[in-house]
């Protein structure tokens, strides 16, 4: 088990990690999501032993992970860290890069393993190419394969799909996480991408200014984001007065707002939410509509574009609104 206990770290004056605590059970996949600069990479680097902490400690299976001041060669052999720069050897082949940490003692076993990993990242035909001649996305796939070559006990992935085209990303993501589950590899993945954070994780940590502000299952986090910061990591979100979405009575406290995702608002015959359409943006499966309610900008999804200045009425599922309101009042 990984135990991160109350760790703080700063490069200069301001803390970059501020009293961070969480646990990862063996085989668990944990996503860390937060805006740029919130401390995701620093957290992964700290877990890998690349930073000397100001306070707190990190343990893997009870053994303390030490920073560079106490460990001449930072990083432990049972942990692999895939950084945002891929750190590949540019002048040796893709195969040699993937096999860098594998023993030469059993050459056939080594070759089988490299072939299996290259197949997973769809780079078999590039086995003899040099990373220097590959695209950014292809290099990232080589780095991913190399990080998994030794079947680490703990894998730390920093934005592992950021350079990979959406055409490949979904399949690679599915295959990678299936592989991790099969091998019972514990994984922490830092990401901006809500699909990375939601689709495959057992638990998601939301980080803001170096602090963990939420820790929950992806489903509960998405259903009850609790703050506009958390909700906005999953896409455009509206903050709406509950009395505009619920029948009279039971409408929360004055000043309350509920968070409503764009796909949860629907055009209705009548409602309290009378909106003037401003613009329609084509997003593939639907249009994102920007409208105004008494000067407040609202976004919602609609199957077709709507003419500017058209007046429409918006509704949301009352059950969802009530649940969010209750959750908000419970958690403050
Ligand atoms: N080597 C460094 N020296 C000083 N400050 C740093 C250093 N590395 C990162 N920081 C600062 O620490 C904070 C957290 O950075 P970090 O890279 O952990 O954020 P992040 O959430 O991973 O961002 P991104 O999503 O953009 O990669 C930022 O304010 C950053 O400017």
Structure description:
Pfam families: ABC_tran. The chain is an alpha+beta fold. The protein has 2 domains: 2-226, Rossmann fold, CATH 3.40.50; 237-331, no CATH class. The protein is 27% helix and 30% strand. The chain contains 9 helices and 17 strands. It has helices at 40-48, 94-98, 107-120, 136-149, 166-182, 194-199, 218-223, 228-232, 318-331; strands at residues 2-10, 15-24, 29-33, 55-60, 63-64, 79-82, 154-158, 186-191, 203-208, 211-216, 237-240, 258-261, 265-268, 273-282, 287-293, 296-302, 311-316. It has a 6-stranded mixed beta sheet, with helices on both faces. Helix 3 crosses helix 4 (136-149). The longest helix has 17 residues, at 166-182. Residues 11-12, 16, 34, 36-42, 192 line the site of adenosine-5'-triphosphate. Residues 11-12, 16, 34, 36-42, 192 line the site of adenosine-5'-triphosphate (ATP).
State the gist of this model.
The protein is an alpha+beta fold and 332 residues long. The chain has helices at residues 40-48, 94-98, 107-120, 136-149, 166-182, 194-199, 218-223, 228-232, 318-331; strands at residues 2-10, 15-24, 29-33, 55-60, 63-64, 79-82, 154-158, 186-191, 203-208, 211-216, 237-240, 258-261, 265-268, 273-282, 287-293, 296-302, 311-316.
